[in-house]
Amino acid sequence: MERNQPRRLFGRRPSRRALGAVSVLAAAATALTGCAGGKATGSDTDKATASAGVGTTSGAKSGGKISIYVIGGKSDDPFWSTVKRGVDDAAKLVKSQGGSVTYLGPQNYDNLGPDAAKLTLTAISQNPSAILVPDWVPANQNSAIKQAVAKGITVLTYNAGGVEAAKEVGALKYVGSDDYEAGKAGGVKFAEDGAKKILCVNTVPGSANQEARCKGIKDGATSNGSTSKQLPLPSSNFGNPSAVSQAIKAALLQDSSIDAVVTIGVGDADSAAAAIKQANAVSKVKLGTFDLSQSQLDRIKAGTQVFAIDQQPYLQGFYVVSIANQYLNYGVLPPQNPFLTGPLLVTKDNVSEAINGTKAGVR
To answer: Angle, nearest 10°, between helix axes 266-278 and 241-254?
Structure first.
């Protein structure tokens, strides 16, 4: 269905051969374990992984079996639940080979960088074969990630940080989207649709990928004669609909020249939609967001939201575990670095396909 994809897919796409190889892994996992969407990997593998790691060399197989630790966001976060779905599906093949996959996430995003570093150190303490981790806040996380590499643990970064950050810490590969180019696509789209002043709402300021997104929005808008500014909010506001709505509403009422709002995540997009309505600006202010949810897709289909920028989180979770598994078992490694999963701009032109993916739990 490649012909149905939108015009902007930035960065080098994985080759058909690489994509096909991982598709084979997906089919194998499904055949071995039944339908996708089984139970989470964390609870039943924590003990097995910790036990297997005792007395082994860091980064090596334990008793001939591999153990993989995945650092990610909150599993009840809509975006990260989709990532975890990909992790869980790829873990089925790992477990069928006698290995284990353990997912670790923070309780909240109030102290994201230091908390992610602590989770990485926790994973290191289990002597795993591999650690897969987003490099959200390099200043806080890089020391812990480098410790894992120094101990001989295979490290892949995904979701945040990009290929340069991966090289900086010694990671094998980066799997994910290019957040700057994703933002740039959104800025260009807004400008093409007539927006002149865009507000980028950032509820995780200081996070490398969110800052890159807002910078991309600004640069994309500027390249087409429009402008953009950032509205940084405390990280404690992330997932707080009332606080985010009130902040956006206040910004719209204070500056009537704002004619577009973009948010860094799906929850904030719902809050932004409410704020635009409360400010009586529905006919004037355009809305866009990063990532997907059913409410975003419904608004795009109805014409009340311009776009959603999909980094395809299911693919991030599935690919990063699959690549680590194949590398550790067979030395197989796709040559692309970064191994891109997006960005993919979802608009009214291709929203029907995205809705189908959401219903299947993979968008």
So the answer is: 50
Question: What pLDDT, on a 0 to 100 scale, did the predictor assign at position 267?
Answer: 83
Phi then psi for 283, rounded to 5 degrees?
A: -80, -10
pLDDT tens figures, 204-221: 898 888 999 999 999 999
Residue 228 backbone dihedrals phi, psi, to 5 degrees: -150, 145
Give Cα separations from 259 to 85, 130, 190, 203 (angstroms): 36, 46, 10, 20
Q: Is the dihedral of CA 45, 51, 53, 56 positive or negative?
A: negative
CA distances from 23 to 16, 30, 132, 207 (A): 10, 11, 20, 32
User: Are residues 134 and 161 in contact, defined by beta-carbon separation less than 8 angstroms?
Assistant: yes
Residue 191: the pLDDT is: 96
DSSP-derived 3-state class of residue 43: helix
Instruction: Measure the CA angle with vertex 344, ends 251 and 195; round to 5°.
Output: 35
Specify the pTM.
0.72
Q: Which amino acid is at 194?
A: G
Residue 61: pLDDT band with limits 50, 70, 90: low
Give dist(CA 64, CA 348) in Å, integer.
Answer: 50
DSSP character at residue 292? -
Asked if the model's pLDDT at residue 151 lies above 70, the reply is yes
Residue 335: how many other CB atoms lie within 10 Å: 10
The residue with greater pLDDT, 180 or 54, is 180
Centre a 10 Å sphere on the Cβ of residue 51 and count the other Cβ atoms it contains: 12
| Strands 286-290 and 307-310, sheet pairing | parallel
The length of the chain, given as a count of residues: 363
Instruction: Enumerate residues 6+ apart whose C-beta is below 8 A from 170.
Output: 145, 146, 149, 155
| Angstrom distance (rounded) from CA 363 to CA 182 | 16
